[in-house]
Predict the structure of Beta-lactamase.
Amino acid sequence: MPLSRTFGAIIAALGLFLAPLPAADAFGPVKSLPQQTAEARLLAQFQSFAVLTDGTVGIAVQDLSTGEEQSLNGDTLFPMASTYKVAVAGKILSMVDAGTLNLQDLLDPPLPAKSRSVHDLIDLMLTHSDNDATDALVARAGGPAAIDEWVGALGVKGLRVDSDTAHLLYRAMGISPAAGSFRRNVAAALEADSSLRERDARDMPNIAFTRDPRDTSTPRAMNALLANIQLGKALKPASTAYLLDMMERCHTGKARLKAMLPPGTRIAHKTGSLNGYGGDVGIVTLPDGRMFTISVFVMKDYKGRETRDSIMAHAARAAYDYFLFAPARRTA
């Protein structure tokens, strides 16, 4: 190769190394030292709450103004239990938005009982976590697959709906149902199997169930569903307001997310409970009007309900203080 061509090739190669490096902003906003310190403190708090249990804790929070996320085991799958009822309500209200269902339409619950309106069933499902009301709505929605499809259409990944409440609970309890009502099947199974009775009485987890990918969500995926709802991407404005108002009137979980928040704090949330498992997911409004989503799940826990509730309460307060008082964040 002629010397001139060799020299040119060397210069060209050197040019790859002598070119100026891209600015730091090319890789995203630069975090200030105070912000990095605040984030590290929050994650350290999450870790300290997690060691209270002998199980697994998942926590995810997201600022709905900036999109900032912080999490512990945020991409780990957890059983949803009754937190999946947010998705059930969303699918039903999307049908109301489409004009194929009316809130005053009457539906029949699984057990022989008087027909109730869609509005009443949603109220029972979200404010009291009523399972019969939920399964009447799941059936009207077109079954679990239709609810799962609605969630997927929002772009939410990591959350799947496979069962109605009765069949979710059968799997959680390790029951193979026979013909007959849910209550009759559960009573017969508990009578026949002393290990089931012990697990139920001692609030112990079914480890096989916690490893089943059906009817699960990651904390971040549940936050994505909540964000879609709050930001008006899932439903029309009237249905969005209706759903969030219902969730603000949730009667369950008083010792969970809302327990340590300042009195009067607005929180729209939904709880879930199973043996050895507890969850609470919601949207918290700060005094200045900013909002953040939070999903906390605890599974495989043998310490008991009070421990699980305490983890959720402390996580919510830590997130509240972080978003309210942490240094200003760069968002661009």
User: Anything to note?
Assistant: Residues 1-27 have pLDDT under 50 and may be disordered. The domain at 31-325 is CATH 3.40.710.10 (Beta-lactamase). The chain is about 45% helix and 15% strand. Residues 305-325 form the longest helix (21 residues).
